[in-house]
Amino acid sequence: MATTTKAARGTAYFPRLAAERLDIALCRASAAVARAADAHAAEEGLGVGQHLVLRMLDAVGPCSQQTLSEELRIDRSVMVGVCDDLEREGHVRRERNPRDRRSYAVTITDSGRRRLAAAQASIPAFLDDTFQALTDDERGQLGALLGKLLGGSR
């Protein structure tokens, strides 16, 4: 009986811990969302990093890999592989940066724009499923708070 009681109490421990330790709660929530995003990306055939790169290039235009890495917070060594894969698939092209001949400008192609549009179409359903426990207002609040935290980390 004591084992059952202890086990039953143990199931309520993490919510209390998360309320006391926001860092732990955020890490666990982040890991759960990352797993969901990776699974969704696998279904779509476009990795999370690839999606982010295409999205940024579409939004801001040609960028160096270094800028992509810094802005998207993707390790530089990982960014090389992401860009290699996207280039191999014809979704981006690399050209010498006219302002700095030592670096390359990564540019989204028409194929990349089409691939991005296809991937973007499935995002609302993915977000609704992943954040179903939150109301629309709570999702907005979470986005604002995370933006505030991440904006301060630079």
Radius of gyration: 20 Å
Order of helices and strands: HHHHEHHEEHHH
- Poorly predicted regions are none
Cα separation of the termini: 52 Å
CATH class of the largest domain: Mainly Alpha
Q: How many individual domains?
A: 2
User: Biggest β-sheet, characterized?
Assistant: 3 strands, antiparallel
**Total of DSSP H or I helical runs spanning 4+ residues:** 9
CATH superfamily of the largest domain: Winged helix-like DNA-binding domain superfamily/Winged helix DNA-binding domain
CATH architecture of the largest domain: Orthogonal Bundle
Q: What is the average per-residue confidence, as pLDDT, rounded to a whole number?
A: 88
- Structural class comes to mainly alpha
Q: What proportion strand?
A: 5-15%
Order of strands, widest sheet:
1-3-2
Q: Report the strand count.
A: 3
- Could you say what the CATH topology of the largest domain is called? Arc Repressor Mutant, subunit A
Protein name: DNA-binding MarR family transcriptional regulator
Organism: Nonomuraea thailandensis
Keywords: DNA-binding
GO molecular function: DNA binding; DNA-binding transcription factor activity
What report would you give on this structure?
Helix content is 71%, strand content 11%. The chain is mainly α and 154 residues long. It has two domains: 44 residues, no CATH class; 79 residues, Winged helix-like DNA-binding domain superfamily/Winged helix DNA-binding domain (Arc Repressor Mutant, subunit A). Strands 1-3-2 form a three-stranded antiparallel sheet. A hairpin with a 2-residue loop joins strand 2 and strand 3. The longest helix is centred in the first third of the chain and has 23 residues. 14% of the residues are buried. The mean pLDDT is 88. One of its GO terms (molecular function) is DNA-binding transcription factor activity. This is DNA-binding MarR family transcriptional regulator. Keywords: DNA-binding.
